[in-house]
Design goal:
The protein is globular and about 60 Å long. α8 crosses α11. It is built from 13 helices and nine strands. A six-stranded parallel beta sheet has the order 3-2-1-4-5-6, sandwiched between helices. It has a three-stranded mixed beta sheet with strand order 7-8-9. By secondary structure, the protein is α/β, with parallel strands linked by helices. The chain has two domains: about 160 residues, NAD(P)-binding Rossmann-like Domain (Rossmann fold, 3-Layer(aba) Sandwich); about 120 residues, N-(1-d-carboxylethyl)-l-norvaline Dehydrogenase, domain 2. GO terms for molecular function: oxidoreductase activity. Keywords: NAD, Oxidoreductase.
């Protein structure tokens, strides 16, 4: 049986751990808040009391935590303890600069790391339908494939180093901008006295029907925002991309500022679609 360790059992990490356990993988989990890992025991996930214990005997180690400095602090502990033949799947969205540092840490420890952020929220994670963006050595990818194929519906191998994290930042920027655009579209319907269903029907019946944006439209219309991708994390990812670009565009600056104001207004833990509340406050 393939043994997988998940370090970080927040919204995404817990969803991934539950799904893998349901697919007959041997899954162990650790989280800084121990109760979050222990809560997965009924789903067949074995909680570990510390990082070193969690990774012993693992075929693959997944890191899914918020920031690069947290990943690095964990790596200093688990890299010496994980088996030499294991593969570290670094799935946290930490940006290209941090990814380069983490790759060096793995190399210095004589361990293999794949830069493997995911595209998708907690719902596709529960269903094993994530899109996995992977960069790293082909040999490491093949060794990790049994785990990756359980987690995702598609594996995009985009390079040999830290390219995947950079692709992920750009994809998230596009996704966030599309949500802001849909929020503005719903607001325009309201301002013009139109039933949004008419606009959405036109989108659904033609080539412009982006499923994700249509899902967000339903949340915006209901004004309920269960966190699939929290606003605070979307803002963090936009900041990572801005840090690496030579110059940011006017559009990206506008989207990022809108997200920042939404977080400051108290919507940080809600889904990214909650940005609609800021646009509504500004114009209605």
């Amino acid at each position: 049986m393939t043994s997988v360790t998940v370090l970080g059992t927040g919204l995404m990490g817990s969803a991934m751990a539950r799904h893998m356990a349901g697919q007959d993988l041997d899954v162990r989990a650790w989280n800084r808040t121990a109760d979050k890992a222990r809560a997965l025991r009924p789903d067949g996930v074995r909680p570990a009391s510390n990082v070193e214990e969690a990774v012993r005997g693992a075929d693959a180690v997944i890191t899914m935590v918020p920031t690069g400095d947290v990943v690095a602090s964990l790596a200093a502990r688990f890299l010496p303890a994980m088996p030499v033949e294991a593969v570290w799947l670094q799935m946290s969205t930490v940006g290209g600069v941090w990814t380069d540092r983490l790759l060096r840490l793995a190399a210095d420890a004589g361990r293999r790391m794949l830069d493997a952020p995911v595209s998708g929220s907690s719902q596709p994670a529960e269903q094993g339908k994530l899109v996995l963006i992977v960069s790293g050595a082909s040999e490491a990818l093949e060794r990790a494939r049994p785990v990756l194929e359980v987690l995702g519906s598609h594996i995009a191998h985009v390079g040999t180093a830290g390219e995947a994290s950079r692709v992920k930042m750009i994809v998230n920027s596009w996704m966030t901008a599309s949500v802001v655009a849909m929020a503005d579209t719903m607001l325009a319907c309201e301002q013009l006295g139109l039933d949004p269903a008419h606009v959405l029907r036109v989108l659904e019946d033609g080539p412009l029907g982006m499923p994700y944006a249509l899902q967000k439209a339903a949340e915006i219309r209901a004004r309920t925002y269960p966190a699939g991708f929290p606003l605070s994390l979307a803002l963090k990812d936009l900041g990572l991309l801005a840090d690496e670009r030579d110059r940011s565009s006017r559009l990206s600056d506008t989207v990022r500022e809108t997200m920042r104001r939404a977080v400051e207004a108290g919507h940080g833990r809600e889904d990214v679609a909650a940005v609609a509340e800021i646009l509504r406050r500004d114009l209605l």
